[in-house]
Design goal:
Low-confidence stretches: 1-21
Pfam families: Methyltransf_25
Protein name: Methyltransferase domain-containing protein
CATH architecture of the largest domain: 3-Layer(aba) Sandwich
GO biological process, one term: methylation
Largest sheet: 7 strands, mixed
CATH class of the largest domain: Alpha Beta
Order of helices and strands: EHHEHEHEEHHEHEEEEHEE
Structural class: alpha/beta
GO molecular function, one term: methyltransferase activity
Mean pLDDT: 85
Strand content: 25-35%
Distance between the termini: 47 Å
CATH superfamily of the largest domain: Vaccinia Virus protein VP39
Keywords: Methyltransferase, S-adenosyl-L-methionine, Transferase
Number of strands: 12
Shape: globular
Helix content: 25-40%
Strand order of the largest sheet: 4-3-2-5-6-12-11
CATH topology of the largest domain: Rossmann fold
């Protein structure tokens, strides 16, 4: 891919454009799980939760609730928080176990629940674009944890240029989504200004021909930056480990709240 030619002009057919900051669009939320596919990375996070015997878990950026539902199956108490009401509506409609509490909000205002563990998947870490927003998230998460509680999160490495893999990995480009019909996805990388990378997902719904564009920017953080930020915000890093199936691409880090 020639990164010098990545900036695109908008599609004339787009009838709605949604920024990443709060992806609060019902049509995007309704098809999100179908296009995400098999989230095998979530099993790695769940395994760490088991390893640390966490019984009260804060799921930050829970989205449509796939991880929260997985964790609650083991009779855990899960507090799942997300800034998107549309995504939360999808999560609630799944009928997750009774141990899940769904909250509208973000990491900075996470409730003080005395959680044993807070989890942020790598794709959630990437939405914090500024140092200020990331610092506020770490502060809020630390406040939500009990003393000695754990933060389990992930990052994807810049040197693997994962945005190129992602742009190439839209197979199939169209899916038949139950209850919605055929939906086509066109993914573009629109700008690369490391550590920031911008994307546009355009979903076209065959049922009525409507197209919805999801335009967003992600920030890719590296291990030295994460280590420094954790120390500055009251955490002690314990481990970095590869996500099975994603060696050298995505890693999970485990940090303990220190007092």
């Amino acid at each position: 891919m020639d990164e010098s030619s990545l900036v695109r002009t908008p599609f004339d057919a787009i009838v709605d454009a949604v920024p990443y900051a709060i992806v609060d669009h019902p049509r995007i939320a309704s098809i999100h799980d179908a296009f995400e596919g098999q989230r095998d990375d979530l099993l790695a996070y769940a395994a760490v939760v088991d390893e640390l015997n966490a019984r009260v878990v804060l799921d930050v950026g829970c989205g449509t609730g796939t991880l929260a539902e997985l964790l609650a199956r083991e009779r855990r108490t899960v507090v799942a928080i997300d800034p998107s009401e549309a995504f939360l509506a999808v999560a609630k409609a799944k009928g997750a176990p009774s141990g899940v509490t769904w909250l509208h909000g973000d990491a900075a205002n996470a409730p003080e629940v005395g959680a044993d563990l807070a989890v942020l998947t790598a794709n959630v870490v990437e939405v914090f674009l500024t140092d200020e927003d990331w610092a506020a998230a770490l502060t809020g998460i630390r406040r939500a944890l009990r003393p000695g509680g754990f933060l389990v999160s992930g990052i994807r490495h810049l040197d693997r240029r994962v945005w190129v893999d992602r742009a190439a990995d839209i197979v199939p480009a169209a899916l038949d989504v139950p209850g919605i019909g055929r939906v086509q996805d066109r993914l573009e990388v629109t700008a690369v200004n490391l550590p920031l990378v911008s994307f546009r997902d355009t979903y076209t719904f065959a049922a009525d021909g409507a197209a919805v564009a999801w335009e967003y920017t992600l920030r890719f953080r590296e291990r030295p930056e994460i280590e420094s930020d954790l120390t500055d915000h009251g955490f002690r890093l314990q481990d970095f480990r590869d996500v099975p199936g994603h060696p050298g691409c995505e890693v999970i880090f485990i940090a303990e709240r220190v007092d």
